[in-house]
Amino acid sequence: MSTSRRTFLSSVGAAAAASAVSAAIPAAAKATGKSPLPPATTKQLYYVAAPTPCDKSLKFDEALYKDMLAWYKEKGADGIVVLGTTGEFPSFSAVERRKVAETALKHRSGLRIIVQPGASNQPETVELSQHAEQNGADGLLVIPPFYYKNPPLDGLIRYYSAVFEAVKIPVHLYHIPGTSAVPISHELLHAMEKYPHLAGIKDSTGDAAGYAKFQEAFPKLNMMSGTENNLKAALQGGMGAILAGGVFCGETAAVFAAHRAGQDIDAPLAKLRAASTLLRPGGIGAYGPMKFALAQRMGTRQAFQRPPFVDVTEEQKSVITAKLAELKQTAAGA
After folding, report:
1. I want to staple 282 with a disulfide (CB 3.0 to 4.6 A). Which of 150, 176, 237, 320 is the partner?
2. Could you tell me the sign of the dihedral formed by the alpha carbons of 272, 84, 31, 12, in that order?
3. Are residues 111 and 80 in contact, defined by beta-carbon separation less than 8 angstroms?
4. Residues 6 or more apart from 183 whose CB is under 8 A from it?
């Protein structure tokens, strides 16, 4: 789903957006007792799109979620996204989503927290956005209303304007048209430039050409890559990334660490790609296998997912276990 190009972000609008986002980050840090990150790293951060763990009865597993956050921090993540696509947000009620967000925000383990409050209706999206801000979220990632396909631009502008006018923390728009079927167009993003807390987007399309156009048109915003294949382009363009699951959290953090140290990132990026490729035969992209693999790497009990998604099979477990053992052996010999 291509988007048309418009003029570059004006220098005045860009300065206002950058200033507001920079101001909002220290404010959020002060409210939650965290030290702000140095200005040079406020955009180039690595966020894990965190799964939402459920126990065998398919209830939110709060204790396991706390363990996940601590593990992500230990492995080098800068932050997490709560209740994104990987977090199965449509499978949880608004009451449950508030509980999940509160758990993450109370037990952040030094991580930055971006909450995804989007729903298919405006009132719930606004309410969950305000709830996230009131509980100390560092920012929002808002998916467009995803039931009605091809909504008019004016309608999307009104929808997102309600969110921007309800909160003051940084807001990212969520570009994942393969799932939402409602793309974030350049026109929509330009319409939101009047709000100083517009932070950028997450681009989960995996389309290198489309991602490059976003970077070119909005260089002052944080056009975060949501896919591994655009990670190098994101870092070279001064942007951050939100990557799914965190099974390879340590490997991904190593790419960011190399970049921040001014080193070539090709070697750690190759290790990340080798690790993710190794597990593809295990169906790691699906919720059940992903959560099983994450539990294996963390050394914790398995998390489960709600219908319509199904659990990891015994065959997948065998493949994943063997591949993870191979990965561990390879890392030990490196």
Report:
1. 320
2. positive
3. yes
4. 1, 3, 175, 177
Across the strands, what pairs with 304?
54
47 in catalytic set: no
**120 close to 84: Cβ distance less than 8 angstroms:** no
pTM attached to this predicted model? 0.87
d(CA 224, CA 172): 9
Question: Residue-wise over 140-160: b if at least 16 C-beta within 10 A, else e?
Answer: bbbbbbbeeeeeeeeebeebb
Active site residue 174: yes
What is the Cα–Cα distance from 158 to 298, expressed in whole angstroms?
43
11-262 topology per CATH: TIM Barrel (3.20.20)
Per-residue pLDDT of the chain (334 residues; tens, 9 = 90+): 333 333 323 333 333 334 444 444 434 344 444 444 444 447 899 999 999 999 999 999 999 999 999 999 999 999 999 999 999 999 999 999 999 999 999 999 999 999 999 999 999 999 999 999 999 999 999 999 999 999 999 999 999 999 999 999 999 999 999 999 999 999 999 999 999 999 999 999 999 999 999 999 999 999 999 999 999 999 999 999 999 999 999 999 999 999 999 999 999 999 999 999 888 877 777 999 999 999 999 999 999 999 999 999 999 999 999 999 998 888 776 6
Which of 65, 159, 160, 174 is catalytic? The answer is 174
Tokens of 248: 């390879």
Q: What is the DSSP letter of 280?
A: G
Q: Which of 73, 202, 220, 317 is catalytic?
A: 202
